[in-house]
Amino acid sequence: MAGQPALGGDLGRRARAARRAERFLGVLTGAVPMDGYFAPRNLLRILGVRRMAGLMFGRRRAHTARHTPAADAAAVDSPAQAPGAVGGGAS
User: Are 20 and 46 a contacting pair, CB within 8 Å?
Assistant: First the structure.
């Protein structure tokens, strides 16, 4: 039958995904040692070559938040703009 090889491949993928999820949850609960899970070889297997290279060479995503410039930080730190401040001026 033509559908059986595809079914077997699907079951194999599901079994591998279940093992990966089980191992990840084991790391979170402490049942699986972190040293082994976060070893470079295991991360390469999980993330793939492209994502692993991005981590190694420090490429950042374009949508990461930028730091607040000093001029804007001074405006935010003023008492008039503090959270919970009412009115914000000298009376």
Answer: yes
